[in-house]
Task: inverse folding
């Protein structure tokens, strides 16, 4: 084998290593894109970049990698009543693909630098993000109760009593029941105290948050 083939093998092995390290963190946290997924994405991106370097349409193939990873990441994002899930994992997939492309292109300094920053973001900033989340959280509340005049206003006033900012969303009446949705912002402890109050309310038939 000549030198360039050995260099390509080293690129793929490096992509496997860096992608695997990022995937190990995701696997540890129980995320959908774990060890094998991130390895395949990083190695695949590096392989596509290596192969595209041997063709004249390098830029087009590189841009198609980005588009393909975008579709893959979009499949991980899903919306729940309480918010959007999977954004961090989708962003991780996108970033791992960028590492693979940098390795495939021979930009080892950029690849390693990007890996260090991505790893630091996932490992070190998670505690900071959790702390910020305790200071201010956005939650989606859904309350089902018996219809009465001023019923939903009563719950909006309850949110405000606990120091929470409330934004009314859709409301729906079905028979003698009324369903209300709110977007509520405030400290975590205020949310928890409000939730305990709502859980102990005998007139609340269903409650999600």
Result:
């Amino acid at each position: 084998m000549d030198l360039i083939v050995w260099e390509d093998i080293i690129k793929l092995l490096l992509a496997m290593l860096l992608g695997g390290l990022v995937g190990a963190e995701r696997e540890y946290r129980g995320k959908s894109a774990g060890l094998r997924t991130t390895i395949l994405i990083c190695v695949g991106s590096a392989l596509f970049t290596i192969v595209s370097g041997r063709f004249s349409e390098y830029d087009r193939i590189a841009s198609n990698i980005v588009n393909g990873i975008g579709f893959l990441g979009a499949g991980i994002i899903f919306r729940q009543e309480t918010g959007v899930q999977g954004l961090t994992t989708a962003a991780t997939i996108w970033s791992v693909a960028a590492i693979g492309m940098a390795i495939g292109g021979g930009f080892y300094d950029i690849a390693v630098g990007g890996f260090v920053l991505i790893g630091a973001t996932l490992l070190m900033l998670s505690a900071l993000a959790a702390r910020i989340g305790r200071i201010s959280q956005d939650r989606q509340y859904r309350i089902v109760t018996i219809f009465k005049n001023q019923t939903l206003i009563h719950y909006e006033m309850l949110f405000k009593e606990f120091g929470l900012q409330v934004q009314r969303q859709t409301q729906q009446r079905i028979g003698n029941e009324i369903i209300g949705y709110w977007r509520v912002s405030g400290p975590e402890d205020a949310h928890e105290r409000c939730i305990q109050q709502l859980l102990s309310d005998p007139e609340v038939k269903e409650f999600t948050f």
Notes: Strands lie at 78-80, 83-85, 137-146, 165-174, 177-186, 204-208. The mean pLDDT is 83. The radius of gyration is 24 Å.
